[in-house]
Amino acid sequence: MxxxxxxxxxxxxxxxxxxxxxxxxxxxxxxxxxxTRSDPAVEALPEKASDEDRAVAFAKALxxxxxxxxxxxxxxxxxxxxxSPEAIDAxxxxxxxxEAFQLTYVSKGLLLEQEKNAxxxxxxGPSAGASATAKPARKPARTARAAxxxx
Length: 151
Description:
Layout (H helix, E strand, L loop, with lengths): L12 E6 L2 E5 L4 H8 L2 H4 L7 H16 E5 L13 H8 L2 H16 L41
């Protein structure tokens, strides 16, 4: 029988998001997720907002709460900068960083790794995280021709 292992230390951990870029994040707890869901930026989204807009708003709100420190991030002049709400939002506007944050932090926090048969997260929306595994088709598929009816 598999057992869920609890980390009772709740210590922050470093996560590599890109070569030379890492962030120290709080553990992804229920309290952190609940607080993020009621973040003003998340709640201010219009009801008709796309799943993609919701995913970005949620990820930024979560990162603003979770990021404690970082390495390898600087301003336009290449000078290291400290995390701030504006800098965290700008960091997540970089697509590969956003994707790595979703995959290394959000997805792993939401999935029980002990349950290998769990469904993947939605590729977009607040639980964005899954990535496509199939390669795009090179040319359109040919359709089958109808068999003669004999009439």
